[in-house]
Amino acid sequence: MKANEGNLDRIIRFVVGLALIALGFWVMSGVAGIIVGVVGIIALVTGAIGYCPAYDIFKFSTKK
Fold first, then answer.
1. Which H or E run contains 45?
2. Mean pLDDT for back-to-back runs of 10 residues, the chain (64 residues)
3. What are the sequence ranges of the domains in the chain?
4. pTM of the entire structure?
5. For a surface tag, which of 4, 7, 57, 61 has the fewest beta carbons within 10 Å of its beta carbon?
């Protein structure tokens, strides 16, 4: 896995991931809360490691 996310992309994913996890945990309930939380975890993890599988599939990169 080669990093394909730039610094700004990683920061945005990390912050949005934290916000979605909080939203899913405290605001939403039931299945919707779980789905939002899982999407938040995915955003958080991809932001933390700097690799996005979807970017790789579409041959896209924000890293310079």
1. helix 30-49
2. 93 97 88 93 96 94 92
3. 7-57
4. 0.88
5. 57
